Structures are given as structure tokens and as C-alpha cells.
Amino acid sequence: MSVQTVSAVLSLLAILSLAAVALRVRALAHERRDYAPVQIGAYRIRAIGFWLLVLVGLPTSVWLFRANPYTVQAAAPQVVNATGYQWYWELDTSQVTAGRPVKFRVTSADVNHGFGLYDEAGTLVAQTQAMPGYINRLTHVFEAPGTYRVLCLEYCGLVHHNMIAEIP
Ligand SMILES: [Cu+2]
């Protein structure tokens, strides 16, 4: 079961519990009752809720934070400098490792180009502009190994269609 599924199920349970409490309160709202017994019951429920949070909520939070994407990203960035030219791409790294974040630093030596990253099925997975005088940063995690392609997404002249680079 993925972290997202666990989170969704826990959130749904919490929402349904709150809805049940709200409906119960609404149903009992017109009843006249002595305060003291109600207070004892409410304090018991509050204590149970507190210990549920400590014993279930705390370990669950720790477990969910173990896959924090920010710490994974900070651990080992792979950097690829990409420059667009009329009409080719220059990448200073030809191979990257799947499952680890790749930081692309994208620029252009002449005119505006579009840096489009495609998977083997031809689906666009990430993109940014390649602009002269600017370095645009794009971080992407290649989920699966394979041959990815960089295509130009902005018409930049006669041989624009030929601007294809491969990242095996
Ligand atoms: Cu182009």
C-alpha cells in the first residue's frame, strides 16, 4: 500500500469520525441533561482521543515523514547543463540515474528554444524555456530507466525539427 493510499484512508476515517460526532451532537442537542455525567463522559472521550493521537498519530506521522522528498533531493543531485543552439542541443552529461533527482540548468546560445523532455512513449514529462542570457532550472526524477529525448518546443528556425538529443 502506497503512502498516498494510507494517507487517503486515514483522512477518510478521520473525516467520517468527525461527521459521526457532529451528527450525534445534532441528534442530542434538544435533550435536557444534567451537566456532571455529561462532563465525565466527555472527559473520558477526550482522554481516549489524546492517547489515540499519541499512540497512533505520532508513529504514523513519523512513518509518513520517512519518505520526505526534500531530504531525498538534497542528498544527491545530478546536474546536467543543457544549451540550445540553432539547431542542436549540447548536454554536458549524457547519462543520468533513474530514481534520483536530476537538475537541468537550461540556457540558449542564440535564440529562444523550448527544452522538452520526452519518455520512450513520446510523452512530455518535463519542460522549460531555453533562453539566451538566462539559466532556467528544471528538476526531474526519471522514474524508470530508458532512453529519453530532448526536443525543441519552440519554433526557432529552419531546422528546428532536427533539435533532438538523447539521454540514455
Ligand atoms: Cu526549435
How is this structure best summarized?
This protein is an alpha+beta fold and 168 residues long. It contains three helices and eight strands, in the order αααββββββββ. The longest helix is centred in the first third of the chain and has 31 residues, at 35-65.
Fraction in helix: 25-40%
Q: Briefly note the CATH topology name of the largest domain.
A: Immunoglobulin-like
Alpha-beta classification: alpha+beta
Low-confidence stretches: none
Domain unit count: 2
Strand content is 25-35%
Through-space gap between termini: 31 Å
- Quote the average pLDDT: 90
Order of helices and strands: HHHEEEEEEEE
The H-level CATH homologous superfamily of the largest domain, spelled out, is Cupredoxins -  blue copper proteins
- Total strand segments: 8
- Estimated radius of gyration: 27 Å
* CATH C-level name of the largest domain: Mainly Beta
Question: How many H/I helical runs?
Answer: 3
Attached small molecules:
copper (II) ion
Question: Which strand order spans the largest sheet, edge to edge or round the barrel?
Answer: 2-1-3-6
